[in-house]
Amino acid sequence: MYIFIVNPIAGSRKAKKILHSLSETTVYQKMAQKVYMTTGSGHAKSLVNTHITMNEHHAVEGVVVIGGDGTLHEVINGLGSNRIPIAYIPTGSGNDFKRGAQITLSPEETLENLYTRNNPLFYWIGTYLDEKKETYYFMNCVGMGFDAKVAECVNKSFIKSLLHRIGLGKILYITALLREISFFKPFSVRIQVDAQTYEYSNCLFAVVNQHPYFGGGMKINPTAINNREKVSLLVVDSIPRWKVFALFLTVFFGAHLHLKEVNVCKGGQISIQTAEPVLTQSDGETNTKQYVTIKIANEPVEIYGARGTD
Fold first, then answer.
1. pLDDT value at residue 94
2. Percent of the chain having pLDDT more than 70?
3. Per DSSP, what are the bridge partners of residue 233?
4. What is the structure's pLDDT at 286?
């Protein structure tokens, strides 16, 4: 059994068209499948989790995700510790996971590879435990502070869908960025990276990455490499407000790493504790946290959609 999780309103809104095209292929017609259209936030997670809690995961051979990073994020969290292969067909607006994992195959090639188990990408996802002792999973990054506030502003915009459909989504992000520069208040944070402790009293944001990208193509942490040993932390502290915009202008090229206010390090486990609850984003989905402990999951996820190596 193959489960198709389709988000019809993600980014380009091409998911239904892609599904129709796939349904006419030989490989799709060979599959025993269930197709679900998501209807809102949390639905993809609920759909996948239902199959797990009903003990159907032994019969599920793969999950096909046609949607954006948010849909993939929900599927990963719905699966939890179950390592069921995933075919990812990106139709989102940001597509950071597509960049970070080098998802380049056509939908037809991706489905074929899932079915034949050809060219799997073994991707090490991140996990984080919050102050409520609840465990979550992420594919791209977890950030606390300014980046989460900008993500929240973008997510709540009533013109988000329109701008993304006409290819102007980055304008929305820049507008949110400019607005929040004036209003966002830095915060105090204590960070432990393995045995080393760091304290920052004027933190703009702290983000832990599984690959270099966030925010729809910003190369926020060029040093981040997906592997089983370490995650990469980037902290921006005590930066003048005028310099924040300069930081985000250079972030597409990685030049921001030369700024004295930017600090980068790596570790097997990273704990972040703030003096007060702070807005937090995980793969662009926002919530409020005061404490997170981040590390790499024990086993990788088998992802299809990357070309692999010959």
1. 79
2. 92
3. 208, 265
4. 92
> What type of residue sits at position 55?
N
Query: CA 146, CA 90: separation in Å to the nearest integer?
Result: 26
Could you tell me which of 267, 293, 297, 280 has the C-alpha nearest to residue 131? 293
pLDDT-based confidence at residue 310 (cuts at 50, 70, 90) = very low
Buried b or exposed e, range 134-161, using 16+ CB within 10 angstroms: eebbbbbbbbbbbbbbbbbbbeeeeebe
Sequence-separated (6 or more) residues with CB below 8 Å from residue 73: 137, 138, 139, 140, 282, 283, 284, 285
Of 132, 264, 244, nearest to 193 by C-alpha is: 264
Does residue 74 register a pLDDT over 60?
Answer: yes
Long-range contacts of 152-161 (CB under 8 A, 24+ apart): 152/279, 152/281, 152/286, 153/179, 153/180, 155/284, 155/286, 160/93, 161/9, 161/13
* Inter-residue contact 59 to 29 (CB < 8 Å): no
User: How big is the CA angle at 116 (ends 17 and 58), to the nearest 5 degrees?
Assistant: 90
- Cα separation of 14 and 7, whole Å? 9
Minimum mean pLDDT among 47-51, 88-92, 123-127, 169-173: which range? Answer: 169-173
How far apart CA 58 and CA 4 sit, in angstroms, is 16
Give the integer Cα–Cα distance in Å for 139 and 86. Answer: 13
Query: How far is the C-alpha of 88 from the C-alpha of 52, rounded, in Å?
Result: 19
| Residues constituting the chain | 310
220-268 confidence digits (pLDDT tens): 999 999 999 999 999 999 999 889 888 888 887 788 999 999 999 999 9
